[in-house]
Amino acid sequence: MAVVELLNLNNVVFRTYVFWTGVLVLKMFAMSALTAVKRFKTKTFANPEDLMSPKLKVKFDDPDVERVRRAHRNDLENILPFFIIGLLYTLTNPSTFLAVNLFRAVGISRIVHTLVYAVVVVPQPARALAFFVALGSTAYMALQVVAAAF
Prior knowledge:
It contains five helices and no strands. By secondary structure, it is mainly α. Helix 3 runs parallel beside helix 5. It is elongated and about 65 Å long.
């Protein structure tokens, strides 16, 4: 199948990849907003010009702010590789059923990861399960891309 046919919104695999990529970009934008909300709520600001009062001091160690920042960093470490490998996986002309469900698994598990890590803290293994579902799905796609390139 030609690249033009694979990277076309008429291709269910590509359309699903595009959808979940868009959802995850919006989710990452929401993490920036959630960080800002936590900073204002706790009056924890990292830059002197952001201080809302001369009584406040620059602070880097609020546990709530740092939890959200760690969740956001985890997104950057895991969602960005998905963006690349998911697109390359689409080019391997994978099974529609498998590809659609891998993309869904990554998207849903990354959302769940954020919810149980930064929004409503849930004890382990909730976060680990969400993390490993996305990691496993992305790793599987990466292996398929490498195998297809051989």
